[in-house]
Predict the 3D structure of the following.
Amino acid sequence: MLVQASNGEMNKKILITPRSFGKQCNEAFELLKKQGYEIVRNDTGKMMPQDDLKKNISDCEGVIIGVEELNEEILKTAPNLRAIAKYGVGTDNIDIDFCKKKGITLSKTVGANADAVADYAFALILACARKVPQIHHQCMQRNWSKVTSADVCGKTLGILGMGSIGKGVIKRAQGFSMRVMAYDPYWDEEFARQYHVEKAQMKDICMKADFISLHLPLMPETEKCIGQSELELMKTTSYLINTARGGLVDENALIDALAKKKIAGAGLDVFNEEPPADERWFKLDNVIMGSHCAASTIETTKRMSLAAAQNLLHDLEDNSL
């Protein structure tokens, strides 16, 4: 759907791909239109296909991007592009080197979704341990037999990545009297001391944690950081939680571990391919799947929409001087 700028100008164009952008915050659209920008929106109800992305971005000065891939091939078709605003914080879907080479400014909505994702990660911890989906499904079949599940209170939580979201999960774990172990290459000693977080290496976390929650950025050094060897170190009673990026996990190894009950289960909001094409996922009875919706709350989409619009305008106006 094409929306013309309020002042009638058609020479300044912005592409917006996130489906939830502005749904709870019309002010974000108004900010852009007041500056004379024509807005091209993704109204497909799904991720914008690469061919459509290539066509729509070709004459844009700015783009607000969600999870669609902005690789070099796509970016080369947009010679007028001056600024990209990420609707979120993960930039692994954007060719950052190409942006630097071409002087394209990149911004992120840092902190806007931290509480929502931390909430969802902890919801997955509870849902996995207490088998909430299985019990619900059983009750819907009018089967009222008891289902035995596992405690969360007093267990050991392993955090890989102690950024704003990882810290949020740690704060929530305090209410469940959990022992917390964490790994992060940029260690925050003051935070760790305040919340009694034990500094640990990934190997120790895999061996000792009852729940492992991933909050690392996806980079070459973190890709498939949870693979067969890490999964084999985990206890048969432990759970893997991932609300970060699918690429952090070797999915073939995880499917095998879940199918063979090498670990108790997994709660996953992200996958390498979304939705997953591998049919084996849908045959597992010990995985809770999410549609990359951890940040999709009313309050968070408002904050992210407004922040992304403000970031983009700031960079476009600065770049136009």
